Amino acid sequence: MAYRSLREDLWGGVQGFLKGGWQPGHWEEFWALQDVSFDVQQGDVVGIIGRNGAGKSTLLKILSRIVKPTTGEAVIRGRVGSLLEVGTGFHPELTGRENIFMNGAILGMSRTEIRAKFDEIVAFAEVEKFLDTPVKHYSSGMYVRLAFAVAAHLEPEILIVDEVLAVGDAQFQKKCLGKMGDVSKKEGKTILFVSHNMGAVVRLCSETILLMRGGVGYHGSTRKAITHYINSDLGATNFKQWSFDNFSDDKIVFFLKAKVHSKDGTIKSNFEITEEIGITIHYRVTKSGYVFTHGCNLFNDQGINILNSHDIVSSMRNVPRSQGDYSATVWIPSNFLAEGTFIIGLAILTPEPFSIHLHEPNALAFKVTDNISGSSARGEYTGEFPGLVRPILKWEASLCTKAQ
């Protein structure tokens, strides 16, 4: 949470008055959370998912005692360690060493207890060279590494972690997930984990709470929670149109609309496994002379990245664009994807030098079903058929020796 001085608040009020934005007596009531109720048992690892604005961060701040609920109560039994935002819990003027001891003291630990964990914290955070540097000089990645190491190692009974881990690099994120797994399984600690990374939620959490519009949309198995999330009216759909209100003069390319469709152009959400699936994007180029390529990412309902595809074959891939509107379509072949729900991310890139101009990670969604007709890779088999893809592969069989 950012802190402001009284002077900044007063000046902000004056600016609002001069712009005509301040109206005495005018206010609008808004509930970030309402009628939210759930129980978490000791040793549970619970994911919390939902779109931006669903109330996730507010919930964690209430559970961390940073924010007091307007009504109701949060009953917590155990010492809480929280990692909610870059900067939470650290004093910027103190060194990394001093902040470790300060956080331990806040958690009620003695200096002897903190010293016993000190070397392990420093090794995990990989900040040995900067241990006696004020943390205000740390990069965001260093800050998060040390903050997570402190939160995870100073023996809280309950560990609350927000999406802040996304600031770290992929290797450190993997290490954090491993540590949280150890903390829950080996030490019996309780973990609340907020993330937009569905793969991480699936790997770590046995159950998940889906927040929707400030309420609990679903609470149960993680896989079902993610499916509810993807299929909800707040999730991605088979068609998206971007508003011109979001366009700015400094952009050279904009998304206009995108759709998922069949071979005949029909916009659809549900496809048989034997159908080709088209993904089409329309975009506008506002400045001539740039070379663009198109890209898409495909994720399943567990957050696993099924494929990434960049346009390396179309006739326009190395052609500088003039101003105007363009479209591009990529086809997913029939009998390729397994059954399930899929999320599409879209991008416009310049290949050389590499630059991402546009990226919409959750732009579109669709489902694939297998009707067990014998025309897919499962044949007439009706049981569970696992796997991320389901192609019909070439098999050869022959008689090697004839029975006597």
From TrEMBL:
Pfam families named among the record's database cross-references: ABC_tran
SMART domains in alphabetical order: AAA (SM00382)
Family, similarity comment: Belongs to the ABC transporter superfamily.
Cellular component aspect of the GO annotation: membrane
Organism lineage: Bacteria, Bacillati, Cyanobacteriota, Cyanophyceae, Acaryochloridales
Name of the protein: ABC transporter ATP-binding protein
Residues annotated as signal peptide: none
UniProt keyword ATP-binding, yes or no: yes
Keywords for this protein: ATP-binding, Nucleotide-binding, Transport
InterPro entries assigned to the protein according to its UniProt record, in alphabetical order: AAA+_ATPase, ABC_transporter-like_ATP-bd, ABC_transpr_TagH-like, Bact_Polysacc_Export_ATP-bd, P-loop_NTPase, Wzt_C
Domain ABC transporter: 12-238
Gene Ontology molecular functions: ABC-type transporter activity; ATP binding; ATP hydrolysis activity
Species whose genome carries this gene: Pseudocalidococcus azoricus BACA0444
